[in-house]
Amino acid sequence: MTQLSSALAFYLIAWAILSFIFMLLTFKSTVLLSGFFLCLTALFSLLSASYFVGSVALTKAAGAFGLIAVVAALYDTFALLATKQNSYFTLPVIPLPGSEAKQEK
Known about the structure:
By secondary structure, the protein is mainly α.
């Protein structure tokens, strides 16, 4: 393992910790937003582990979590921007069970 790999691994650990904290802060929002930060935490953790051990399989797994995170982020962003006030159609969002968000019927 080179010094660059170690430095990148520790850098990604810092991002994993930050995204984990953000995930904890989204527990009163939607399922997709919490899922996005969960996938982001897994992405940074797997990338960090892949730099530590030099595993291509871990890098591929991190890429899969990255794709899932991108899809969740795009859907959630569109669903939160397309409201009844500014769009003719809306996408369904599922609030988490402790959130104060009301289901619109």
